């Protein structure tokens, strides 16, 4: 288990899903012997309209989760959880062939919940983690989007204004780069810069967009998809911080208040 955890939102079977994941669970070589995967599936008592946790129930489940994890020894490694469709599933790798210890602990702390425990058979070690839990390219960028948007808010940007957003994409051939440019220009993206170095093509494009999380997610999902269509690699975005101008009346009130 590592300290590198993150959360991303996606859909599973066309239903909203929230995934919390350890992005580097096997950072310690001793954990490589934990090859049996178990799922603890908990039915939510009061899911919200999207099938996710309400704020109140989330708080209760956090405490239960901490109690379960504190009771498990180093032979169990928690790698992530999925919340979707009225359930929260916890995933553990262990060197135990049977899950009796997990069952005993779950029985102790989940007395007010319906739950089940089952072993997930993997075709090869860690396959479920890498193929189902781990974020794809679009989901990875959504995690980065959230961090950037949070940073904008922290710097005083209320996100209400659209602004120019720059994006970087890389290609291994000029042909792929040109096909990509032709496609995105039809969707109002401007070509800002193109650099060729060591047979690698670096492209910077821009468009005026809103940067609220849902809005920028749509933009990066689109660019990731088009880049992959033409064998490119979308690398991310940047933009300016726009702080709300303080109105004259507010400035006057503040000045008068400071003189009292």
From TrEMBL:
Matches recorded under InterPro entries: DUF695, RraB-like_sf, RraB_dom
Record-annotated DUF695 domain positions: 3-134
Positions of the Regulator of ribonuclease activity B domain: 145-239
Cross-referenced Pfam families: DUF695, RraB
Name recorded for this polypeptide: DUF695 domain-containing protein
Species for this entry: Paenibacillus anaericanus
């Amino acid at each position: 288990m590592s300290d590198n955890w993150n959360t991303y939102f996606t859909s599973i079977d066309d239903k909203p899903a929230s995934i919390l994941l350890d992005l580097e669970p096997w950072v310690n070589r001793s954990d490589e012997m934990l090859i049996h995967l178990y799922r603890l599936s908990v039915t939510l008592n009061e899911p919200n309209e999207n099938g996710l946790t309400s704020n109140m129930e989330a708080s209760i489940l956090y405490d239960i989760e901490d109690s379960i994890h504190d009771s498990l020894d180093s032979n169990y490694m928690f790698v992530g959880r999925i919340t979707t469709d009225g359930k929260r599933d916890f995933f553990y790798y262990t060197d135990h062939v049977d899950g009796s210890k997990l069952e005993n602990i779950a029985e102790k702390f989940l007395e007010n919940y319906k739950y089940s425990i089952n072993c997930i058979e993997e075709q090869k070690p860690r396959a479920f983690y890498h193929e189902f839990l781990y974020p794809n390219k679009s989901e990875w960028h959504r995690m980065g989007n959230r961090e950037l948007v949070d940073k904008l808010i922290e710097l005083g940007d209320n996100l209400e204004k659209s602004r120019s957003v720059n994006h970087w994409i890389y290609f291994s051939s000029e042909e792929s780069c040109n096909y990509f440019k032709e496609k995105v220009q039809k969707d109002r993206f401007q070509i800002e810069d193109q650099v060729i170095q060591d047979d690698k093509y670096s492209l910077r494009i821009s468009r005026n967009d809103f940067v609220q999380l849902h809005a920028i997610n749509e933009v990066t999902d689109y660019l990731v998809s088009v880049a992959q269509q033409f064998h490119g690699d979308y690398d991310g975005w940047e933009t300016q911080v726009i702080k709300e101008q303080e109105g004259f009346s507010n400035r006057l009130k503040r000045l008068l208040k400071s003189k009292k």
